[in-house]
Amino acid sequence: MEPKRTSGPEAPAEPAYGLGSGGLPVRRAMHIARIVVRFGLGSFLHLAGLDRYRPPKRRSRKADASAQILGFPVRVRLALEEMGPAGIKIGQALAARADLLPPEYIAELRKLQDEAPSFPFEAARAVLEQELGCGIDEHFAEIDPTPVAAASLSQVHRARRHDGREVAVKVQRPEVRQLVEQDLQILSFAAGFAQRRSEWCRENDVVSWAGEFAHILRTELDFTQEARNTDRLRESLAETPYIMAPRVHWDLTAHRVLVMDFVEGVTPKDDERLDALGVDRPRLAQRFAAAMFKQVTEDGFFHGDPHAGNLKVMADGRIALLDAGHVDFAGRDLRDQILSLLQRLLEGDSRGVVNVLTAVGVVSARTDLASLRLDVDKMVARFALTRSGGFTFAEALDFLFGLLVKHKVRVPATFASLVRAITITQGVCLMLDPQFDAWAAAEEALKSMVRSRLRPHEIFSLIQGSVREWGYYAKTIPRQLSELILRTQAGGTRVRLELEHMDRSLHRLDIMVNRLSFAMVVAAIIVGSATVLGSEKASTAIGNPLALGFAAVGGFMGLWLLYSIVRSGRL
Fold first, then answer.
1. pLDDT confidence of 3, banded at 50, 70, 90?
2. Within 13 Å and on the Cβ side, how many CA atoms surround 384?
3. Do residues 307 and 400 share a domain?
4. In a shared domain, residues 25 and 108
5. In terms of domains, do 82 and 202 share one?
6. Number of domains into which the chain is organized
7. 496, part of any domain
8. CB 30 within 8 A of CB 53
9. I need a surface site. Which of 52, 134, 185, 297 has the fewest CB within 10 A?
10. This prediction's pTM
11. Do the domain assignments include residue 181?
């Protein structure tokens, strides 16, 4: 029987994480808030407007005091780990955005390991049977109930098909989809609230980042997408004999189940077993670096997280790339930019480095380009021009992205992902060969890419694209100019002027006018009540209790207005 192409019913929701008013899972939000406070990160709750979910101070004071021993970046990592699947994925996504966070946070978030306790095989069997639409015995001669690996979203079992082929069966956790959806609701709410209150959040558009992250995480929960990524990765590596991706068994793959060839091998960090296999580790490091640089700079389709846990060194010396849930795509222009950046770094051209960064990134109004150039000059002199000082290529890139944070320059997420893939690749290569020279590998990759760009079909393709683009402009610009002239002659031309942050200024003006109007009403009530109480005839006609009531209401409203002004911090 063919597997169903729709996911089976989800496990019942945990009662502790029920939805509150407005669709926000209040109990889950309170659980996350307790984790945040326990690690001494309560200021984040205030920033995101989640103060009401914060536990009482008496309950959290002891935990706060013990957490203060650790550094702030370490506490952030530990808190994200304890939050579960979404928290770990958020940390890993932020680890790829060295243009948003300082280097010490990036270094700490890169330590996040997507590991979790395994769940019972009976639960895995239920998911398999729901997705495949039949009993597992129909498709597998045997399946090991003990998983070979377990992560926050899934776990992997080794199995054998009836034709004797060994396969890896990746099964999604039964409850994870609903839990992730709840966490994404909380993330969306917190990002929106924080962006309205924080200038930094507005500058970095955390709402868009949260939306992009939610899309990526939902895609990871669909194993058919990972299967397609694996197939494409396998095709792109077909001409590279020393690196491969496993074959997908599509007849057994569905939204919550992924079946691939089982890869027998050892991780790059297992020195003893690598030596037992007789692997030429320096050569393998060079080959792996060349393959990853090719993906990043030539193919444009690359594995975004090639760390040691996603790699297996096989007995024949090949490296298998696993877990294609996190891949990324880079167009020709972006690849040209990363090529230009590598070239400028290797040449020690600091002005060229700045030009590339400003071309590919979004320069803030607060960016001082002269100061940025000076800092890049120092960075290039420190790292690129003195390679004998022991600085690695990844350290130079990390330091460079730290300057982007300092000078408020934002780069596209894919550009940051490209740099992160290069950085992780260097770490694996150093694991295989402690003497690995990433600068030399980058130079060789650069030469290879330049040679590939000089091939006749590449030059022809580039010329053809340029001719097509200029042909489009030649056809459209005269027509657009003609339409503009005709509209101007007919008096139908309109100029729309948008002032930056005008909506926030108008909002503040609206608040000021409302407060002024409110203050005038309060003053009128108080003055009117005082006039009535001071006049014997008016008091007799209206009655002292009613006049006193009006005076009390006016006084209360006045005190409330004063309190709100003091609380806003704009007294």
1. very low
2. 23
3. yes
4. yes
5. yes
6. 5
7. no
8. yes
9. 52
10. 0.70
11. no
